Automatic annotation (TrEMBL), chain A:
InterPro entries: ABC_transp_permease (IPR001851), LivM-like (IPR043428). It is found in: Cell membrane. This is Branched-chain amino acid transport system permease protein. PANTHER family: ABC TRANSPORTER PERMEASE PROTEIN, HIGH-AFFINITY BRANCHED-CHAIN AMINO ACID TRANSPORT SYSTEM PERMEASE. Its main location: membrane. It comes from Streptomyces pseudovenezuelae. CDD domains: TM_PBP1_LivM_like (cd06581). Pfam families: BPD_transp_2.
TrEMBL record, chain B:
The lineage of its organism: Bacteria, Bacillati, Actinomycetota, Actinomycetes, Kitasatosporales. Keywords: Amino-acid transport, Cell membrane, Membrane, Transmembrane, Transmembrane helix, Transport. It comes from Streptomyces pseudovenezuelae. InterPro entries: ABC_transp_permease (IPR001851), BCAA_transport_permease (IPR052157). It is found in: Cell membrane. The chain crosses the membrane at residues 12-29, 59-81, 140-159, 188-208, 220-248, 270-290. This is Branched-chain amino acid transport system permease protein.
Length: 360, 296
């Protein structure tokens, strides 16, 4: 058995090369790609952070949530409220922006905690229906609490500034490449995503992860083995809300303006689609799915002229947004039916075939 | 007082429509243990078929076509997707129905576009006056149709062999299969019935005072989810009570909106969800749902 657990040095080394190459590429992108691609990549990063959160909840613990959009909104608007200086007539506390970002994430966590009497007691799909309420309550508040949210028009997002560096569009030359907000945010996004992914991996591989999987597979058995089921369900819900809050902050910084329409039920469904397509219950699955689902509409928009069937919005054909919804809707169904485990499972399976010593 | 009576009557009528939708939802859940998130899109499909056909073939044939069409779509979803799933994790199946919902809703909303399509119903905007209370014909028709359908369904559920088979399958699938109940057929039937009921509900969600079928109709249909869960997902009685409760609350919140302005506009759309959260806080299994009992 022991040889199953020890990875051959060759595997570790080759994986190290892949990681190093990926890191170099990701770090170099802002110097070579134009704004469109950076923006698309940033969306994917924000989505990946949110998807990791919902994968902890839905994938690893088996608790369906349709309310993820609500917590994204809490993060986005929370950041605006804490960071804005109140110059536009809306409530703003004028805190330092980094503190505002941290507080926004905490507020999202508190919002998740307030839902814990329900999130701790309901299991699986029941919770999915209950969390529908959050999306609609969120929409109601966003449209009506004008002082906080700016109503239907939304509100501007103050740029993040950290250690004297402001992530706005004032251009900064780095190695003869002008750095606007997209380039600067790119690195912030990378750091946040890496931290989020490592933390989630730690959670999944440690005691809490075992407990979460046990709850998903058989909550009664988990309870008998001494796992406090309700407390774990509630705690994972809080953690997942905080990930969503962080993703919300990042999205707000990318958009530079938050509007309530974005945080509707469709967004929640998108996040569920991401984790199913990528792979339930793993960090890499969440990231893969997030990249797939969030890049798809961007790619289709960019190349709508060259693609058959897809046409620009408003011309009567299938708009890029719709085309991408067809694609990921179909992907969800097909992946569950034919590829249980998602996109990352194919990669894992190939690894197992070449290295029988590899664990999963 | 007359406002109150009107609001209450409208609420009961609206609630009976929600009960129809919730009933279909509960039937699918009992027969296949799948939480069917595609239910709203089945409703949209039924409504769309009725709306496009009524000009050519008249209202009643169009309604029948809508019911048949939605039943067919439901059955197709069961046959092509639900039946092909080989795992046994029901919350994954719930996510599959979300995928189906994304597909169907995208297609239907693309076809509907920004239009508001009337369904060509014979009631129009006629209003019945009883003393000071006035109520639209469509609301009366909705209540009568829902009451008839629900009664017929409950009788069938209790006395026909189809109903017995379905209840047996819900009780214990394996035992039912060993007794000769064809589970595939039962679940196919459940999905078809759910689709048909949803198509009828689509009609009454889009007639007067609502202008017609539009994109947002699927959002209105979503309100039947709280109705189903606050009654208890596995209880047909619960679906009825939940539907009525949701309908009446929504109607009250809309009717007395002017007294509730401090809570913001559009409170009626939110009311069903608030009721659901309030009830789930007290009774996590819903009002009539069976508490999950586990024997170890």
């Amino acid at each position: 058995m022991s040889e199953v657990l020890v990875k051959p040095l060759r595997v570790i080394r080759s994986r190290g090369y892949v990681w190093a190459a990926a890191a170099v590429l990701l770090l170099a992108f802002p110097f070579y790609l134009d704004r469109f691609w950076l923006q698309a990549g940033l969306f994917a990063m924000a989505a990946a952070i949110g998807a990791i959160g919902i994968n902890l909840l839905t994938g690893a613990t088996g608790q369906l949530s349709m309310g993820h959009a609500f917590f994204l909104a809490v993060g986005a608007y929370g950041y605006c409220v804490f960071a804005a200086d109140g110059g536009d007539g809306l409530t703003g506390l004028g805190l330092p922006t980094w503190l505002a970002a941290v507080l926004a994430v905490l507020v999202a966590g508190v919002a998740g905690g307030l839902f814990s009497p329900i999130s701790g007691r309901l299991g699986g799909a029941y919770l999915g229906i209950a969390t529908l309420a959050l999306v609609f309550i969120g929409q109601h508040v966003m449209f009506n609490a004008h002082d906080l949210t700016g109503g239907a028009n939304g509100r501007d997002v103050p740029p993040l500034s950290l250690f004297g560096l402001t992530f706005d569009d004032r251009e900064l030359l780095v190695a003869a490449v002008p750095f606007g907000s997209a380039e600067k945010l790119w690195y912030a996004g990378l750091v946040l995503l890496l931290a989020g992914a490592l933390f989630a991996r730690g959670v999944l591989r440690g005691r809490p992860g075992r407990a979460m999987n046990a709850i998903r597979d058989h909550s009664v058995a988990a309870g008998v083995l001494g796992v406090p089921v309700a407390r774990h369900r509630a705690a994972v819900f809080v953690l997942s809300s905080m990930y969503a809050g962080l993703a919300g902050v990042l999205l707000a910084l990318i958009f530079q303006r938050t509007v309530p329409d974005y945080f509707g039920i469709t967004l929640s469904l998108e996040y569920l689609a991401m984790i199913v397509i990528g792979g339930l219950g793993s960090v890499s699955g969440a990231v893969a799915g997030a990249v797939f689902v969030s890049l798809l509409p961007q790619l289709l928009t960019r190349y709508s002229d060259a693609l058959p069937l897809v046409s620009a919005p408003g011309t009567g054909g299938i708009a890029p947004g719709e085309a991408s919804r067809y694609l990921y809707g179909a992907a969800v169904v097909l992946v569950v039916l034919f590829l249980p485990g998602g996109l990352v499972s194919t990669a894992a399976r190939r690894r197992v075939r070449t290295d029988p010593g590899e664990e999963r | 007082m007359s406002t109150f009576a009107e609001v209450l009557l409208n609420g009961v009528s609206l609630g009976s429509v929600y009960a129809l939708i919730a009933l279909g939802f509960v039937v699918v859940f009992r027969a296949t243990e799948v939480v069917n998130f595609a239910h709203a899109s089945l409703l949209l499909a039924g409504g769309y078929i009725t709306a496009t056909l009524h000009d050519d073939i008249g209202f009643w044939p169009a309604l029948l076509a809508g019911i048949a069409g939605a039943a067919l779509v439901g059955a197709a979803v069961e046959f092509l997707v639900i039946r092909r799933y080989r795992g046994n994790d029901h919350s994954v199946l719930a996510i599959v129905t979300i995928g189906v919902d994304i597909l169907l809703t995208t297609e239907l909303t693309r076809r509907i576009g920004t239009d508001v399509i009337p369904l060509g119903d014979p009631w129009g905007d006629a209003v019945l006056k009883i003393g000071p209370v006035s109520i639209a014909h469509t609301r009366i028709a909705a209540f009568v149709a829902a009451a008839l359908l629900i009664t017929a369904f409950l009788l069938a559920f209790r006395y026909t062999s189809w109903g017995v088979a379905m209840r047996a399958a819900a009780e214990s699938g394996e035992t039912a299969a060993l007794m000769g109940v064809r589970l595939g057929r039962v679940s196919l039937g459940a999905w078809a019935v759910a689709g048909g009921l949803a198509a009828v509900a689509a009609l009454f969600l889009t007639v007067f005072p609502t202008p017609g079928l539009e994109r947002a109709t699927s959002l209105a249909a979503l309100k039947a989810f709280p109705a189903a869960i606050l009654g208890g997902l596995d209880s047909t009685t619960g679906a009825l009570v939940g539907g009525l409760l949701v309908g009446i609350t929504e109607s009250l919140a809309t009717g007395y909106q002017s007294d509730l302005t401090f809570l913001g506009r559009g409170l009626g759309d939110l009311a069903p969800y608030l009721v659901m959260v309030a009830i789930l806080l007290i009774r996590p299994a819903g009002l009539f749902g069976t508490k999950e009992l586990a024997r170890v």
